Amino acid sequence: MTWLSRRLVVRALLREWGRALLTLLTVALGVAVFLSIRLANRAAVASFEQFTQGVGQGSDLVLRAEAGPLREAQLPALRPLLAQGWMRPVIEGSFARKDTLEGFQLLGLDLVGLGAAAPEPAQDLGPAAPDGASRDRATLDFYGVIQDPQAVLISTALAAEGLAAGSVLEGFVQERPVRLRVAGVLPDAPSRPRIQRNLLVMDLPAAQRLLAREGELDRVEWGLRPGARLVDLEAQARRLLPPGLVLEPPEQRAESGRTMTAAFRFNLSILSLIALAVGAYLLFQAFDASVNQRRETWATLRALGQPPAALLRLVLGEAALLGGLGSLLGLGLGWLLAQGSVRAVSQTVNALYGASAARSAALHGEEAFFALLFGSLACLVAAWVPARRAARTPAVQLLAREGGPPPVATLRLGLAGGCALLGGVALAYGIRPAPGVAWQAYGGSLLVLAGGSLLAVALLPLLGLPGRSTRRWQLRLALRPLLRPTSRHGFAAAALAVAVGMTTGMGVMVQSFEHTVLTWIGSSLQADLYVAPIGSAGAASQHRLSAETADALAGDATVAAADRFQMLPITFRGRPTFLGAGDMAVQAARGGLILAAGGPFPAPLLALRQGGTEAPGVLASETFARHFGVRVGEVLDLPTPAGTRRVTVRGILADYGNERGSLILDRPVFLAWFQDARVASLALYLKPGQSAEAVAARLRLEHPGLQIRSNGALRQQVATIFHQTFAITYALEAIGLLVAVLGLAQGLTGLALARRGEVWSLRALGATQVDLARILLLEGLGVALAGLLAGLGLGLLLARILVDVLNPQVFGWTLAFRLPVGFLAMVALVTLGAAALALVPAARWGARLGADREVEEGA
Amino acid sequence: MAVLQAQGVGRRFGSRWVIRSLDMALEAGERVALLGPSGCGKTTLLNLLGGLDRPDEGMVLLEGEPLHRASPARLSVLRRTRLGTIFQFFHLIPTLTAEENIELPLRMLDWPEAAIRERCTALIRSVGLTHRATAWPAELSGGEMQRVAVARALAARPAVLLADEPTGNLDRSSGRAVLALLAELTEQEGSALVLVTHSEAAAGICHRVLRMEDGQFLAGPA
Ligand SMILES: Nc1ncnc2c1ncn2[C@@H]1O[C@H](COP(=O)(O)OP(=O)(O)OP(=O)(O)O)[C@@H](O)[C@H]1O
Ligand SMILES: [Mg+2]
């Protein structure tokens, strides 16, 4: 460290510790908000992946049937593959615990093969540890399990809740009550992610029996033997592959659509973006202020003959120091913030997928590194911009008598902002790429965001206009600075505009979404009672009603009509999707599906039935139609256990329930092709005069394994799930908003610091502290108002892009735009309220800057 | 009766007394120059006299009222009505024009609009800046800025005007002009003046000169 940098950087920081601390805290805050949202994201995704992967790790290829189950009888054809790889047949099901109604993933694995025959997969599974002793112990567990058809292995997390070996787990599989016996614990190994809590492992034959699916599998996982090559295994497998079976890479797991919904991911990544934008703004603000405050020093050095490059080095050195320290501080702060947001995320994941998600966020090394990198780099860039400006400005100007920070060119910024805004809208609406991609919508949104935040700065002089003519001196002093705003004003307003804009945009989109979905539910849920096996809430559920139970319910004396609905995962054109089947006759007569194309309800449904099982029709959900580019009238090749069949699309169905999309067949056709009479859910239309609640109560007694909900209760539940999905959005947005408001307070504090002399002379002229605080507060609120107004405007534009372009393009969801006035008013109130709360202490502090001893001691 | 009186005033920074047991009195309309080497405590004394700082011993009386006992609110009122201040570095409010800077104290006092206009116009004319009335401080020269500051300090007709090296930042001719203006206007308005300065010439406009050294007056106050 040079003599100069020691004196000019380190000493200055120590002497002006107030300024240094402010910068440090801002950097910390910026890094913290970035890190916390990233950590929360990671926790959500991790807990989700853990849930998705379950125990089945380490496989290289996955074999499954295109549609319907995989038959064990099809496996011998693949025997030659065993020279190069090992295989692991898997069947999956669901178990609902009786006392808590919690859902569990039930995994049937060939424990004999795992425990004894093939050592490698056993290691992958987990019960066997690398050292021999524990493998023996694990093997013992296996034999305990395979001798008892009710035996299950449970996770350590569940065991920790007091379920020792030998205890009984009571609950339901499909609709039947069952008693499982805990035979052992699946040990966690440090090399693998923890085994999810809600996982039960059974021996394959026992699981098949329990699920009443003897001879059937959901998939077969293949792994390489040492020395073998994946390409060879794959090539040979493709040669041997029986018709109707497909090979997939392991990550393309389609089972029951249990991938985290893209919508949810989208949500999280947008939030990361807010974090990034707000964090970056804060850093820029901090360093802009920090450099500007020392303009005199820099100018003096220039005048004394320091070359600009040397100055730049000094400034950047200081930035690196502050950035590094602040980022470290931010790591701690971000970790703290993350705990709160992770809780929100885990609630959502729990609610949506029944997965037990992480309840706390670990300080992930990689994320910490990125946060540090982000913090330090952003600090350097943030310092470099004003430093270069200072280095380029002639020293005389910097030393000018009234040398406050220079005003920003609001007119130019406003023009640039307006152009960015228009460009963004033009980009988002003007280009139509292939379905599923939406770079133009993302790009447009970013441009709108950038433009909107620039416009927030340009709005400042407009808000300052009353200060030009007013005769009230406080108003004059408060608003005049807005007429020629400095970069401090600008950054604070822009950061707030981004935060408000994101909140508004997402909020309006969610509300439009909610309104659309509730309307859709209102129309499509017409039956009186909805029946499903207990525990079948999430998409992960594999519970089904047996044909007999469905018949019994449909034949009940109080029931006028029943619509049996079944849903299966299939692979269509190489991509996972769903095939559903419903009773179109009942649906056409009594239902109320909303159709996006194919004619008004119920004409397409009737058209569907005309071809019988020979030339049947099919309904495609809107999401399916978008994903696969399918139109009404198109003929599709549908994979079935009986071979490929041709179906004609008769209508496009509005469907917001499933973003993978689905095809819906008429039930008789499905029965003929799939030989699967089970039912995922059953809609019952009661005879006139029957009380839904009374019938439901009676049926519940008769069928303890069933969940029977009235129309109202189901609607309520759907609405609740919807709210939970987006709860996290609001929680994380609140962080962004909070940070932006804190940034505003920081900006005001800095402004007061920069205007120390002014505050001092105002006091000498007789302004009281209350006067000064009021002036500073008013000025801050003016900045907040500019941020708010621009934010609301850009937020609405953003919402339109999300609703009009992004949702249809990416998810295939057509939403009706809805302007939620109440929500906007709430955003405005919360923003201004939070701003006032944060600004009052800052203003009071600023008013004291010129204070004399009279104040400290009171009088 | 003296408008401003210091009785045994002292001020200490840490353990070091910068000013010790000072007595002085200022009669209405009287102009006193405070002369002394740099660091002898002139600014410190002026801050005590203006109530911007509190003495560690003794007291300051403004028109008989002890400043150290006044509440912050009362002090603000006194500053608006009875005290005027001029700084070495002008300290004009950069977001107000010259004219608006001058009328600021009057607006603080809620003067009626017509009275403000009249007083302000008169002041601007007397400091010779009628043609620069709507200029921003950044557009004014040092001498012009200080003339605005003088007008602003006198706007509310204070009983005492405290000026800390008002010409320290000006060239000799604008310095002379400002000093002449100070003498003329305080005379005209009947304000007393405490003028801190390094220059004997500046002291020439005053009725009395107090010389300070090491926090003490050299000759006892006359
Ligand atoms: N806030 C302070 N903390 C510590 N010491 C101070 C403080 N303010 C002033 N001093 C010291 O008090 C002494 C008198 O300072 P003062 O500013 O009154 O001098 P001055 O006579 O006005 O000098 P100049 O003519 O250079 O303006 C100086 O030695 C100064 O170092
Ligand atoms: Mg001095």
TrEMBL record, chain A:
A GO CC term attached to the entry: plasma membrane
Membrane topology: Multi-pass membrane protein
Entry's localization field: Cell membrane
Domain (MacB-like periplasmic core) ranges: 492-700
Name of this protein: FtsX-like permease family protein
Highest taxon, organism lineage: Bacteria
Chain ranges passing through the membrane: 268-289, 310-338, 368-387, 408-429, 441-465, 490-510, 730-754, 775-803, 823-843
InterPro entries linked to this entry: ABC3_permease_C, MacB_PCD, Membrane_comp_ABC_pdt
Main location: membrane
All copies of domain ABC3 transporter permease C-terminal, residue ranges: 270-394, 735-842
Key words, A-Z: Cell membrane, Membrane, Transmembrane, Transmembrane helix
From TrEMBL, chain B:
Record domain ABC transporter: where: 4-222
One Pfam family here: ABC_tran
GO CC terms in record: membrane protein complex; plasma membrane
Keywords of this entry: ATP-binding, Nucleotide-binding, Transport
The keyword Nucleotide-binding is annotated on this UniProt entry: yes
Domain of life: Bacteria
GO molecular function terms noted in the UniProt entry: ATP binding; ATP hydrolysis activity; transmembrane transporter activity
SUPFAM superfamilies listed in its UniProt record: P-loop containing nucleoside triphosphate hydrolases
PANTHER family in the cross-refs: IMPORT ATP-BINDING PROTEIN (PTHR24220), TRANSPORTER, PUTATIVE-RELATED (PTHR24220:SF659)
Protein family according to the UniProt entry: Belongs to the ABC transporter superfamily. Macrolide exporter (TC 3.A.1.122) family.
Protein name in UniProt: ATP-binding cassette domain-containing protein
Native species: Candidatus Geothrix skivensis
